[in-house]
Description:
Blueprint: E1 19-22, E2 25-28, H1 33-39, E3 45-51, E4 64-69, H2 78-96, E5 100-110, E6 120-130, H3 141-172
Antiparallel strand pairs: 1-2, 3-4, 4-6, 5-6
Helix pairs in contact: 2-3
Bound molecules: zinc ion.
Amino acid sequence: MPVSNTLPARSRRPPRKDQRVWRNMNVDKQLEDAWLEAFNSLTVYKLISICAGHPASDRNSGTHLNFRLKAEWFSQDSQNFEKSLKKLQLSLSDLFEQHSCVRMDYTKTYSANRSSQHDIRQSLTISIRPRVRREITDYDDTTRAWFDNMVSAMQEFDSQSRQIMDGDKSCGNSHVEIQK
Ligand SMILES: [Zn+2]
């Protein structure tokens, strides 16, 4: 279920019976405030969808988390940015692979006018799912523990990502300003 707080209130559907409203968004009932708070307070990543998991009969029933890199973190220096991507991928595997399947997707698209930088669109998404897909319909301790783990892993990944991208920015730009 996509999470968006940019929709005007009137276009938001009333919550389904397995959902509740959190900050003007419909979220799965089992998702705890502390997790939603943490996933929405990251520096580098924006939460774009979160799901507690649903009965297997439901389409897209799997527990998951999806994040997107916030626009201000994309670099115009594509060589440095590609270096950063490799480091991000390593950090992601280190932090998540014990509990989860993670996937990082980067896309860069150019529109018709190739000469203008404004026509380059970049997108970086991180998709995270529990390694073991749940078969039962009830929300269980395993899922709760997974979300708890994901909060700390995601906070650490956010902080490492920030260091990686700040570091690459300063290497690519040796200009130092001295103010008097
Ligand atoms: Zn859901």
